Every structure is written in structure tokens, then in C-alpha cells.
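Hi team,

Filling in the usual template for the complex we talked about on Friday. All components are listed, including any nucleic acid strands or ligand strings, so the model treats them as one assembly.

SUBMITTER: L.P.
PURPOSE: interface mapping
COMPONENTS: two
RESIDUES: 577
SEQUENCES:
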Amino acid sequence: MSVKQISIFLENKAGRLDEMTAVLSANNVNMRAVSLAETDGFGIVRIIVDDPYAATTVLKDAGYINKLTSVVIVEVPNSPGGLNRVLKVFTEAQINLEYIYALSAGKKPENAYMIFRVSDHKAAEAALSHAGIKVLTQEDIAEL
Amino acid sequence: MERYFQEDIECASPERIREIQNEKLVEQVKHVWENVPYYRKKMEEKGVTPDDIKSVDDLHKLPFLSKYDLRDAYPYGLLGTPLKDCVRIHSTSGTTGKRVVAFYTQGDLDLWSECCARAITAAGGSDEDVIQVSYGYGLFTGGLGLHDGAHKVGALTVPASSGNTERQIMFIRDLEATIICCTPSYAAYLAESMKEMGLTPDDIPLKAGIFGAEAWSEEMRKDIQKTLGIKAFDIYGLTELSGPGVAFECSAQNGMHINEDHFIAEIIDPDTEEVLPEGSQGELVFTAVDKKAFPMVRYRTRDICRLTREKCSCGRTFIRMAKPMGRTDDMLIIRGVNVFPSQIETVLLENGYQANYQIIVDRVNNTDTLDVHVEMTPEMFTDDINEINKRQADLVKGLLSMLGIKAKVTLVAPKSITRSEGKAVRVIDNRKI
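RESULT (copied from the run log):
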């Protein structure tokens, strides 16, 4: 059920993100979500795309080191308290979050989509489904 | 079963080797006295004549030659035979100053190829093998040196020269090359390229490699042996002394046997020029006892290493030299500490990185800074930024304990450090002193 996120190594230098996204653009890869974690010397760009396997091939051919990581993506109401409800589920299930970021809006404006990298993937999905929160699949991403 | 190219010489008793050296040295000193006015003048200044040199025991009486002499005497000042007797020249890249141009008579080339043939045989090569020579051909001694050596053992020689990596790999596979000769950094590059092409060591018929012309670490050897699925042999030489083959590794892979019937080795203290006892670390000095066109007597190599006469499991009796830590020219002095690039390479490989690195030295507010650029690899990359930071910190710690000084480590994009197909550029020193 998990969605694969692509993590890409980039040097922390002017123009590197531009070059990398140009590669995706040239190969017609649409990023549904993007987040950047950086240190002094390097950064990790994390992206969600419709077809992660095709995108990693494109990136590898262009010389970018990347890895696929499982993340949990949930649908939440695009209204106050929407995210909070999900976080409460994680707290109760004692699941730690490594990082979170958001997906660009889909076709349904009433919903928002949050991406979580969690300490225990299986437990997170079980707790979410128990609480009646929709967890997205890779196929769902393409439909958004 | 260890195989030898010339067993009677390679496994001769030390006494027999000493006799050969004594005889050839006396003759060589006469030769330079009579034919090389530059060296004769140095001898006269020291008050030595050929009559004072009766055996190897008298070697210490002779003056040294250094790269400064080679520069002063460029191009013909150290020539020992008429030009009409010379049949070839080779030259250094000139990266550490003025180019060295070395001359060879046919006899000099014959003894050089004999040295290379011994090295190839020690690496398991014979007339049954296909030997791909991927050192640069031309002025550089690597290409033609191993080429002539491969001919001498009767192997099918593929004169691939350097560069065009895809064609190299194609020849290795199609012609079923069993031995490759190139620089260690190029071997690592080939391994990397093969991996990218989806090839495993099983797809490659190579069984051995003879790698030299660069300082390389034991860890790099392990890495190359694993990624190419071969046994990697070290070979040592200098253009001044003919080229590769002055010393070579055997199946024991524990030091390089010096071809003592052609070269007499000494270890000296580089500062006092005093000869040090066997086993001491110091600068390697060579006397070529039978090279005629470019006869080097007590040539200071600037290479720092040790010699040992301990028995070798291969049966050869030639004295062995340890892998040089580096050339005194490669040595950096950073914050007063001696640093060799090979030490940094060792730490990188121990920590799981590859030998794709560059050392950048600078001076900020009168303090030297050491920045080591290391390429990220798919194996070392993870989505966890804390893990990457931890690995980076481990590297800094490893460098600190190896070098005794703190270095900054910068992780850079793959292939962003220039790959040379000949010698790797490891050091950029921006200090203006």
C-alpha cells in the first residue's frame, strides 16, 4: 500500500536543483510533491511522482544518486484540524515522524494530502485505517 | 607453482647477486667517469675516482644525482653514449618541474623489457596469455615498457593504450584478455564503468592486473581485486631508471622485488643523506649498473619506503621494497604535519567510500586548511540525513586519527571529480607561500 518517494543526493551549490528538475522536465516527469532537506555541504531532495520507477531510471541515467523510500500519504480534510487528527493517531500508536511535507492539491479542493516518513510503516498504516483515515496507494497518486 | 622468467637470476644466492653487482658497478663507474663529464665533475668535487670503487661497499663514496641535476643537465648533459647509439627516448609528464628526457640504447631497451617480462611472469603471465596494455603509449614509459615486456614473454599483446573505456572493455571481452596493465586509478575507473554497463567480474576474463605509475593503497588493491575479480600486482619504476619494472610484485603480494642484477638500492635519510640500515624508512636511492645511454648513479628517487631481505614465499631472493608511502614531491606539509594522499585514500576506502577524491589545501588567516572532497556513492547514500552526517563525521574522525590533523570533508556529486585516464589529479594546493 505504501507509496515510493524518490530521495536524490544534490550538492549544496547554486543551480543544482535547477539542473535536476530540468532533467525531470525534459523527460516529462511531473513532480506531485517536493521537499528539500539541506546541510552545509549537500541536500536531499525528496519527490513524489506518478511513476517512480521510470523517474529513477531517468535520474540514474543523468548521473544522480537516488534511492526509493517508502512513505505514507494520507488524505485529510482541507480544513482546520485536518492534519491534527492524523497526528493524534500517530501519537496514540507511538509512531515517530522523521519528516512530513505536503502534496500539491489534487482535483478535489476539499481534500489535502500529507506525506509522512514514519518510524514504523506497517503500524502507521494499521492505525490510520483503524481510525478510518484514507491512506493513498501509488495508483491513487496518478489519479489525483 | 611459482613461475619465473629467469629463475637462475631471480632465485640466485645473495652472494651471487652481490658478485654481479660488484662487477657491473665497477664497470659502470668507469663508464660514467669516461663518458659523462657532468658526473665526473661531481666525482672530482668529492675527491673520488673510479679506482676508489672496488665493490658495492664503496657505493657510499659516490655523489648523488637528483632531479635538480637532471634539470641542470637537460637535455644531453647526462648522456653516456653517442646519440647515434641511442634508439629511443622517453619522457616524464613534467608535473613536478622540468621534464626528464631519458635515452636508451638497444641494449638498455633489452634489459628493461627483461625486467618487465619478469614482472609479467611473476603476475602469472606467459605465452598463453592475452595481455592488454592500457597504459598510455608514447613518451610515457608505461605503455611501451609493458608492451615490450609482454612481447618478451611471448604473450599476445593488445596495444590498447589509454582512453576510450568502452573500446577497452570490448577488447577485454572479445579478445578474452587475461592480464591488464594500467594505472591503478584507471583500473578503478574501468571497474566502475563495467559495473555501470551491468557487467560482473564473472563476465570479464581477466585474471590479473599489473598496476603502477601512481601511489596506491592496500585498500585500493582490495577494492580493484574485488570489483574486477582479479589479482592485482604492483609494479614500480621511474623514467630516470628506464621505466616500470625496476621492482615488481610476486604472488606473495608483500613488497616488490627489486631487479638487483640491474639496480642497486639504498635507503638514505633525505635530510642528512646518510645511508640507513636495512629495514629503516627513508628515501630510496638507485644505481643502475648496466644502463649505458642514461646511466644513473645514486639517483635520489624522492620515494619514501623500506627495504627488506626477509625470505619471500615465492622463492625469489631479490630484496623487496615496501609500497612507497608517496613521493617526497607528493607529500604535503599541512599545519606542520606530513600528509600523503595515500593515507587519505586508505581512510576513505576503510569507511566505505571509493577512491574518488580530491584534496584541497588552502591558507586562511595564516592557518592551513585541508578539505577532502569525496564523491557520494549509491552505496553510501541514504534518505536519512542524520545517517549521512554520521558517516561524514566518522570520516573526519578517521582522518584525524590517521593524519593527526583535522580535515573538512565535503560530499560531492558522483563523477564531479575529474577522472583522468592517465594519472589522477589528487591535490589542489591553493596556498600562496
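MY TAKE: The CA atoms of residues 2 and 314 of chain B lie 6 Å apart. Chain B has eleven helices and 21 strands.

Thanks, L.
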